[in-house]
Amino acid sequence: MSAVNASLKLPLRADLAGMEPYGAPQLDVAVTINVNENPYPVPEPVIEAITQAVREVAGGLNRYPDRDFPALRGALADYLAGESGVKVPPEWIWAANGSNEVMHHLFTAFGGPGHPALSSSPTYSMYPEYARNTLTELFDVPRREDFSVDVPALLAEVKRLRPALLVLASPNNPTGTHLPQDDIHEILAETRETGPDGAATVVVIDEAYGEFRRDGVPSALELLADNQHLVVSRTMSKAFAMAGLRLGYLAAHPEVATKLMIVRLPYHLSAVTQAAALAALSKADLLQAQVARMRVTRDHMVATLRGMGLTVAESDTNFVFFGKFKDRQKIWQDLLDRGVLIRSVGPDGWLRASVGTEEETERFLSALKEVI
Ligand SMILES: Cc1ncc(COP(=O)(O)O)c(C=O)c1O
């Protein structure tokens, strides 16, 4: 083997020079509540079902998987019908390795040079990365002080910019707040012809935390039937306790999936992923048994933090966003020194903690009491 040439340069794209890979710290500590996972381990019957399903496909791994995974799309459609009451045919579903990849497909197909995207910060920190990777210019209309979306300002920017994509997380990360259905309705009514060259602006409502919404908060899925330019994105990573599976999906009129098929890499969803996801969906009730419990813990966290005199945003998610600290980095570090890993993200002064098990949550709350 030839010696490594220290002066060799790699032809990295100029706009990527000096950038660091994205990712929250993965540290081995007692209480890990920094990435909004479901803290409960996968129940034994689900492990059994997944093991059996993977065993069944293992012998056929010499063949490429089904590119269009109709069985999985049907099972996801059935799941959504049960969860939100909105029934869509399997062709209205698209899936990929995490909703991260679903979003990447959307940006690849609809974004790109001359096809800008628009979002509303503070919001999920991966949106700028999807945009950067796909050479899409991303614009921002900052949220109001209470983290609500400034719809008039957003629509004014839509008219000016003619964006191909408008991406809004609801409930939002890191704030935990949801977008009222009337706002989504108004946005959809105003974006039918506001994209490049008179096309629609594709409105993506990222419902990664949809299952945690409080009673009475509707899903944007209810608006799908009347809006061909609406995409509702979901994931099995959060409520479903399947972050390690990497399965995200969307529901939209079938032309959306048809367009995304152009840009997906061939056979992007492995046969193992498809089999494991189908098995997990067959046990959805068991996997989601903890969601109600997590909502209770979430409300307890919000009330306790408010009781400690902190400002806490309303939460329709499995995390709480709280502040305001003069030096949030110090609080974050002091908690870490006590074996509790949370996330320092979003506007300065605020911190985010995910719902843990009851025991983890108490450890977090008492450590926080100590450090503030
Ligand atoms: C708003 C939002 N969307 C999408 C994702 C990505 O989820 P996935 O694991 O499905 O890629 C996250 C993960 O934290 C998120 O917070």
Automatic annotation (TrEMBL):
GO terms, molecular function: histidinol-phosphate transaminase activity; pyridoxal phosphate binding
Reaction equations catalysed: L-histidinol phosphate + 2-oxoglutarate = 3-(imidazol-4-yl)-2-oxopropyl phosphate + L-glutamate
Enzyme class: transferase
Domain called Aminotransferase class I/classII large: residue spans: 33-368
Keyword Amino-acid biosynthesis: yes
Pathway named in the protein's UniProt entry: Amino-acid biosynthesis; L-histidine biosynthesis; L-histidine from 5-phospho-alpha-D-ribose 1-diphosphate: step 7/9
GO biological process, one term: L-histidine biosynthetic process
Cofactor field: pyridoxal 5'-phosphate
Subunit-level organization: Homodimer.
NCBIfam families, sorted: hisC, PRK03317.1
UniProt name for this protein: Histidinol-phosphate aminotransferase
Species, as recorded: Mobiluncus porci
